[in-house]
Structure formats: C-alpha cells, structure tokens
Amino acid sequence: MSSIRLLVGTRKGAFVLTSDGKRKNWKIAGPHFAGWELYHLKGSPADPDRIYASQSSGWFGQQIQRSDDGGATWTPVDNKFAYDGTPGTHQWYDGTAHPWEFKRVWHLEPSLTDPDTCLAGVEDAAMFKTTDGGKSWHELPGLRTNATGPAWQPGAGGLCLHTIILDRAHPERIVIAISAAGAFRSDDAGATWKPINKGLYSKYIPNPTAEVGHCVHHIAMNPATPNTLFMQKHWDVMRSDDAGDQWTKISGNLPTDFGFAIDVHTHQPETVYVVPIKSDSEHFPLDGKLQVFRSRSGGNEWEPLTRGLPQKDCYVNVLRDAMAVDTLEDCGLYFGTTGGQVYCSPDGGDNWSAITHDLPPVLSVEAQTLA
Amino acid sequence: MPLIRVELPQHLRRLANLTGHETQLDVAAPVTLSAVLDALEARHPALRGTIRDYTTQQRRAFLRFFACEEDISLLALDAPLPAPIANGSEPLLIIAGIAGG
Fold first, then answer.
1. How much is the ipTM here?
2. Chain B contacts of A36, Cβ < 8 Å?
3. What is the pLDDT of residues B2-24, one digit of tens each?
C-alpha cells in the first residue's frame, strides 16, 4: 500500500510526517535542526529517500543538509553560494543601486531524473545548481545577468527566487519566479532567460504592465499539461496556456485574490486551489475563516472548501511553499500555517483535518507519495 | 605546542557533532583569530561560513568573540590573541548574541 511522507519546514526546525495511504493517522518525527529556519525541503523524484533541506539562521548563515534515508539522518553538504564573477547591482527599496548579496536559499528543486542534481533558488535572486549531491554549488549566471537584472527590486520579504518548476516533457525548460521581479523562463536549461510577465497588471508599480517588477508569489503546474501555469500574484490569480508567454486573470468570484499558496490537482489539470488572504496589509483569512478555494474549471468559478477547517477566530497565514498535493488516486491536499497547523484533505479538498496544531510557524510543505 | 581551546554556541556544536562545550585545535604561532578560525573550519568543515561570511570573511553580525573576559570582536583578525588563549589555559569563546525579550 502506498504511504505519504510530508516534509515540513518551519521557523524552528524540520519535521517529517508519515502516514499510510488512508492519511488518517500520522507520525511526526523531529525537530531536525532544532532552532534553525527551514525554508524548504524537497525529495528527489528519482530517489525519494534523497532529500535536500535548506537550513538557515540569522546568526550562522546558510546550511544545506542532505538525507539519503528519507529524512531519518542528515549530513551537511556544501553551503558556499558564491555569485559568478562580480555580481553587480539590483535596485534597493528606494530605487538606488544595491549590490547583489547572498542571504539564504529559499527553494530547492531536485532534478526529475538525477538524485545528485538539484537547483537552488536564492536571495538575492539567483539560481545555483549542484550535480554532485550538494558537495558543490555553482551559479547559473544567465538569470542574474539577464538584461532586466539591474531593475529588479526586492519585495517585503527580500529579492528572493522562491519558485522553480521543471518540466518532464521539456527537459530544457525551467520556469521560476522572483519577488518582486516577476516570472522568467529558460528554454535552454538555465543558460538564458526571458521575463514572462505579459498580461500581469500591478497597479502599485510605476508602470503597471512593466516587463519586470511584478510581485509573483507562487506558480503551480500540473505535469500533464506543462504549458498551463497557474499563478498567485501579490494580488490577482492568473493563468497562462503558453508556458507564461501571456497571462490571463482568473480571480473570478474569489472574495479576495491576495494570497501566497496555489496548487493544482494531481489528476485534474483544471482543478486549482488557492488560500485567499485578506490583503497585503492584513496577512490572515477573511473574517477569521480559514478557507481553501477550489476551481474545477481552471479559474474564474471558485468554491470555498471549509469542512474541517476553523471557521471563526482564525488569523493565520499560509505561505507560498506551504501547500502540496500527493499523487494518490483521490489526490491528497496539504497545507501548513504560520500558526503551526498542518492540515490534510485526503479527498481533493472536500474534507479536512489537522495532522498537528502545534508546530512552529510553517514555511513549507512538500508531499511524497511512496510506493 | 599547546592546544587552543574554543568554546562554541550550541547550534554550532550540534552542526559539528561535538559532544562537549569545547573543541581543541592545533594552531601554529602566531595565534590569531584568523588562524584559530582557519583551524576550526579545517577540523570541522560543517562550520565553514557559519562564523565568518564566505564572501567577505567578516564576522557574522550576531556573533561575538571573547577572550579572558574581554570582548575582542573588533580585534584585527591577524592580531595576536592574549597569552592565556595562546597557551591553552583559557578558551576562546564564540558567543551567539541573544535576541528578543
């Protein structure tokens, strides 16, 4: 019988949550790296027991940890993220030029085919790669040196590369997102990049339809339809059907279209999930009701999913990397909150229950479906 | 040659798989902060980048160095450390600042 392993990164350590395919009874292991911030953990699709973890701290900087046994034991690997050459400048919050400075790894994306290869999205925004299981990292400088780079400006959370999407159907294609530069795509395995922000409208920037400068919060893709991308922008939920060349707004009847997390049903490429958040100045659900919204039509028509979620006095946030789906037939859906809860729906969002209420603030959730 | 004693904060002890509060290092004279940190990182590679920034080689802002009850965080990296540190009678303390209230 299949089983599920959730990799949960929090403000104070990493936790590994496991269950059988019923997803009713869970074991919680951890904290690993207690006291450190775990922005992201992700397992290799080619070898699920190979897991990479981004461990960081305001005191001690960045560490990368690797597990070869499904998260039971960990080994620190190389943590040197040096920009290639003289890194140059991007814009600071006040519009002045500011030198590129490495701060942390936000997102790790293991190769779809090689457990030793993994991409890392970092702050200040750049992409790094390892091909030796994390023993060394080197930058793919074509992204940072894109002609638009000097115009990139950080969002409130920093100039972070937080989303990386790989595509089995197009092995040379990589889609990424940076707050607050926008979305970019490479069609040559990361050598060169182009901004893919046409159709985005951000009324709070000087040119609302600028080539870059959009605060993209997250992008999701169903591997069966790789040209279709769903985006949670700062405000606005968007979709593209040409791998990001053009975006269309699909917020439809959402009560608010601000938010961070977005994901797609494993087996229904037009079924999309978001967690609406009240506003950019009030990072909690509307009216104290924690609601996941589901569209079965690829956007515009949304329904609230509330069964088993708190419907009063709930003032948590769900961060961009804190939602995941499994690949079981009924598509389990998971998300973690800044209040330390991790919720599970074993049936595509219809019914929810809390796996735990009491972790530190959750930064990321990844789901592994194990044979 | 006396062994140089270095006391580390808990998170770094865990990272380096140290069981006690101290690690002991062979450091050739002159014993400086730079020489001690080089030896520490060579003995415990997991600590690379945790005390000094990889790029700038500067002390991380929330860490402090103490020797013989004195804060020596601003001492030049290539300045000799006090004799009790160099002869191993006192440990060099690497302290993580406390934040919050």
1. 0.92
2. 11
3. 899 999 999 999 999 999 989 99
DSSP type of residue B46: G
Average pLDDT over residues A264-268: 98
Angle value at C-alpha A283, between A278 and A289, nearest 5 degrees: 55
**Chain B: residues touching A (Cβ < 8 Å):** 9-12, 15, 46, 48-51, 53-55, 60, 62-63, 96-97, 99
Question: Tokens at residue B24, please?
Answer: 């002991």
Backbone angles phi, psi at A30, to 5 degrees: 135, -175
User: How do residues A287-338 score in pLDDT, each as one tens digit?
Assistant: 999 999 999 999 999 999 999 999 999 999 999 999 999 999 999 999 999 9
Q: Do A63 and B53 touch (CB under 8 A)?
A: no
Sequence length of chain A is: 371
Rounded CA-CA distance A90/A239 in Å is 28
The residue with tokens 């062979």 is B26
Closest alpha carbon within chain A to B10: A35
Backbone torsion region of residue A207, taken as left when φ is above 0, otherwise alpha when ψ lies between -120 and 50, otherwise beta: beta
* Residue B7 burial by Cβ neighbours in a 10 Å radius (0-12, 13-18, 19+): middle
Q: Of the candidates A57, A62, A76, which has its C-beta nearest B11's C-beta?
A: A57
In order, the DSSP letters of A6-17 are EEEEETTEEEEE
How far apart CA A100 and CA A90 sit, in angstroms, is 7
Residue of B nearest to A101 (CA): B55
Please state the pTM of the whole predicted model. 0.96
Beta-carbon count within 10 A of B58 CB: 9
* Minimum CA–CA partner of A85 in chain B: B55
